[in-house]
Amino acid sequence: MKLSSWILAIRPKTLPAAIAPVAIGTAMAFGDGLFHLPSALMALSAALCIQIGTNLANDYFDFKKGADTADRKGPTRVTQAGLIKPQVVLAAAIIFFALAALSSIYLVHRAGVWILLVAVTSIISGIFYTAGPRPLGYLGLGDIFVLVFFGPVAVGGTYFTQGLEINWAVIVAGLAPGFLSMAILAVNNLRDIDTDRRAGKLTLAVRFGRSFAMSEYLFCIIAATLIPFAVFLITRDHQGIAIASLIGFCAIPCVKAAFTHLDGAGLNRVLGDTGRLLLIYSVLFSLGWVLCSR
Hints:
Elements: H1 3-10, H2 16-31, H3 37-64, H4 78-81, H5 86-111, H6 113-127, H7 142-149, H8 152-163, H9 168-173, H10 175-191, H11 193-199, H12 204-208, H13 210-235, H14 247-250, H15 252-260, H16 264-291
């Protein structure tokens, strides 16, 4: 098994969805004088392990359920392509979920039962996103899962493990990475709409069509750009976070491409570019929060 196959399996373009909310939660804790380095590192470790574990589980279960076939337009899936044996991919997924649980032990010890609840539900949701008789992704619930767990839950959990407190500004700030992660999923589902329909994977794109998926993508981008202003209305402080809304202008080519490209290669580029937008947003918001703290 080549290293390149494992890199394909972990899907690096999706990892900003795990990194960005932890960065934002950490920056907000730092700006509020609550930064705690060990908690930040463990939160990042847990988030990355859950994301990678979910990606590996998806690779395995989508192949088993017939969603990943030779007709797919997306990047190569290692199980379907025969690059890594199915049982090895499943074992790797279990290992990463176990590593996420280990990272969470310290966080639970520090922050208590609420973080235990967050850790358990996050890991279970990652597993059953594509596993089980009624997986979330196959019922059209994946978008809500991504919005909640890669948004307010991840940002709020990161902040809480460091400061041992929470506030509405943090929860609302978490909606932006949630919406941008949801935009990534919308592009993914738009690209895979035909193969998902044949496999009975009832994503929102399959349920409501291409136009809905395109509109969902646009809505998520617009919603994310408005979040900094909503946070400012709550805090009346940290004006610098408004700079993060500039990603709306950066996203214009992505939106145009999402509305005009039907080919897999074009939508794959949109997916990667949206992941980069998420990272850029997290950096700009974090800098704006920290540099404009009182």
